C-alpha cells in the first residue's frame, strides 16, 4: 500500500509510502500548507511541554522564522564550519588519549564514546566552553584511574547526555501514545521518566544560560564578546548585540530565557543524535564491506596525506567525494529518521484524494529510501550510486536531514563533523567488530550497542 490509514486512540494518521506522493509536501515553499508538523492543540506535546517552543514543533511561523535565522547565521556560515573542524580535531585527539590509556585489547563500546565525543564538540561550538563529557566517561569506566578535570560550566555531563537521549525519544512517545495509555499503570512510569528527564534537562540548560549571562555581564564593555550561538541568543536586541542585527520589526526585544533554553536544547540534541548514530552505522557497514572501506581509505590518504596526525581544513574535507557518497548511502540504507510528520493547514489533493485541513501525514522515509521502485538493487550497499551524476539513483532524494523549509539547519556542520571523524578514525586505525550492531527504532533509528577493538594500522 502506498497510502494507508491508521489510528492511535482517536487520532487519525495517513501513511504515505511513495516518493511521488511526498514531493509536494517536502518542497521548501514559504506559503505552503505543509509547514507544520503537529496540531496547535496537540495534547501529548502540551503535556510534555514541547509545543511551540524552539524550532522543531513551533507552529508560529514568524517565531519559527526568527529562531531559524540564528541557526542559519551560525551553523551555515563558513567561519563557523572552519572553527568546527578545529574543534572536532581537538576532541578526537582527546578521545585518542583515553583509548591509548585503555590499550588495544580493550573492547570499546563505541556508541557511548561517539555520543560523548559529539556532545563535547557541539557544546564547544555553541558555547565556547568545554563540557568534558569524554573525560567524565573515561573516569566512569576507569574508577581506579581518574583524569583530573577543571571547573566546568556544565555539571553531570553523563546525565546531560542521558537526558538529551530521553528528550529525543519522548517526542515519538508523546506524539503517538494517547493520554489514557500514557497514564495506564505500569506504562505511566515511562511517562514520568520522560517528564523527569526533560525537567532535569530544562533546569540544567537554564543554569548554563545563567552562567553564560553572568560571564557576559562581567566582560568589560570595551572587550568584544565571542559570537557563539548562546551569546547571540543572550545579546540580541541589547546594547552588546553580537548578532549584527538579526532581529526584525516583529522581534525588537531580548529573547526570553524560555525561548533561549528551547532553541539551545534543540541545537544540542541535533548535534549529538545525527552524528553519533550515523558514525556507528558507518563503521558497521564499512567493516562488512571491505572493498568500499579500502577505496575510502585510499581517497582519504590521497586528499589528506598519509601522515595520520596531519591537520586538515574544511576545504580539504570538501574534496572527499567518495566519503560523502558513503555517508549518503549509509543514510539511505539506515534511515536515521524513519518517518517524517506533516500536517496540512489547507485542504490538499494527494494521490488523487482530497484531504481536509488538519490531516496528519506520516511520510514513510525508511520504505521510500529502500524501495526498488526508486533504487536499483536497494538491498546492496553501493556508494557509487551517488558518484555518477548520470546514474538515475543519484537524482533520488535522500532525506538524511529532512526536507522542505524545516530541513535541518545544522546539516553542513553534521556532514563536516562526520567526514572529519571518519577520516581521522580510518587513516590511523584498523577496526574489529566484536559483535553485531544492536539498534532500536523510536523517534530515530538508534545504535544501542556497537562493540569494537581499535588497533593502530600496521603500515603507519
Automatic annotation (TrEMBL):
One Pfam family in the UniProt entry: p450
Tagged with keyword Heme: yes
MF-aspect GO terms: aromatase activity; heme binding; iron ion binding
UniProtKB keywords: Heme, Iron, Membrane, Metal-binding, Monooxygenase, Oxidoreductase
SUPFAM superfamilies, alphabetized: Cytochrome P450
EC number from the UniProt entry: 1.14.14.14
Family: Belongs to the cytochrome P450 family.
Record-given protein name: aromatase
Native organism: Diversispora epigaea
Upper classification of the organism: Eukaryota, Fungi, Fungi incertae sedis, Mucoromycota, Glomeromycotina
Amino acid at each position: 500500500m502506498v497510502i494507508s490509514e491508521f489510528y492511535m486512540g482517536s487520532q487519525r494518521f495517513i501513511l504515505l509510502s511513495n516518493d511521488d506522493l511526498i514531493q509536494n509536501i517536502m518542497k521548501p515553499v514559504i506559503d505552503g500548507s505543509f509547514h507544520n508538523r503537529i496540531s496547535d492543540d496537540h495534547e501529548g506535546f502540551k503535556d510534555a511541554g514541547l509545543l511551540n517552543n524552539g524550532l522543531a514543533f513551533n507552529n508560529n511561523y514568524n517565531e519559527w522564522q526568527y529562531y531559524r535565522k540564528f541557526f542559519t547565521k551560525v551553523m551555515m556560515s563558513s567561519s563557523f564550519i572552519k572553527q568546527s573542524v578545529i574543534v572536532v580535531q581537538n576532541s578526537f585527539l582527546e578521545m585518542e588519549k583515553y583509548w591509548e590509556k585503555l590499550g588495544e585489547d580493550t573492547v570499546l563500546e563505541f556508541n557511548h564514546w561517539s555520543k560523548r565525543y559529539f556532545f563535547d564538540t557541539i557544546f564547544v561550538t555553541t558555547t565556547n566552553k568545554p563540557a568534558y563529557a569524554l573525560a567524565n566517561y573515561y573516569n566512569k569506566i576507569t574508577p581506579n584511574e581518574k583524569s583530573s578535570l577543571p571547573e566546568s560550566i556544565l555539571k553531570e555531563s553523563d546525565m546531560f547526555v542521558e537526558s538529551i537521549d530521553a528528550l529525543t525519544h519522548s517526542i515519538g512517545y508523546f506524539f503517538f501514545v494517547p493520554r489514557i495509555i500514557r497514564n495506564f499503570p505500569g506504562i505511566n512510569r515511562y511517562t514520568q521518566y520522560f517528564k523527569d528527564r526533560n525537567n532535569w534537562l530544562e533546569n540544567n540548560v537554564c543554569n548554563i544560560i545563567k552562567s553564560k549571562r553572568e560571564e557576559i555581564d562581567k566582560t568589560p564593555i570595551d572587550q568584544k564578546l565571542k559570537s557563539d550561538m548562546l551569546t547571540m541568543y543572550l545579546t540580541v536586541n541589547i546594547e552588546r548585540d553580537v548578532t549584527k542585527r538579526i532581529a526584525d520589526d516583529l522581534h525588537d526585544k531580548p529573547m526570553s530565557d524560555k525561548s533561549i533554553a528551547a532553541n539551545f536544547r534543540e541545537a544540542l540534541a541535533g548535534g549529538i543524535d545525527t552524528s553519533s548514530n550515523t558514525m556507528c552505522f558507518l563503521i558497521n557497514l564499512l567493516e562488512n564491506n571491505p572493498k568500499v572501506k579500502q577505496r575510502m581509505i585510499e581517497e582519504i590518504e590521497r586528499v589528506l596525506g598519509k601522515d595520520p596526525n596531519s591537520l586538515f581544513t574544511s576545504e580539504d574535507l570538501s574534496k572527499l567525494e567518495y566519503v560523502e557518497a558513503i555517508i549518503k548511502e549509509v543514510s539511505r540504507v539506515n534511515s536515521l529518521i524513519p518517518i517524517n510528520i506533516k500536517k496540512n493547514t489547507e485542504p490538499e489533493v494527494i494521490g488523487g484524494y482530497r484531504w481536509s485541513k488538519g490531516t496528519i501525514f506520516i511520510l514513510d522515509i525508511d520504505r521510500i529510501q529502500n524501495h526498488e521502485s526508486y533504487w536499483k538493487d536497494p538491498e546492496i550497499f553501493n556508494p557509487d550510486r551517488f558518484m555518477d551524476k548520470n546514474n538515475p539513483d543519484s537524482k533520488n532524494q535522500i532525506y538524511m536531514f529532512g526536507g522542505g523549509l524545516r530541513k535541518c539547519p545544522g546539516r553542513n556542520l553534521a556532514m563536516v563533523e562526520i567526514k572529519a571523524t571518519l577520516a581521522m578514525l580510518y587513516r590511523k586505525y584498523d577496526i574489529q567488530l566484536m559483535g553485531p550492531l544492536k539498534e532500536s527504532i523510536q523517534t530515530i533509528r538508534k545504535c544501542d550497542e556497537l562493540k569494537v577493538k581499535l588497533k593502530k594500522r600496521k603500515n603507519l
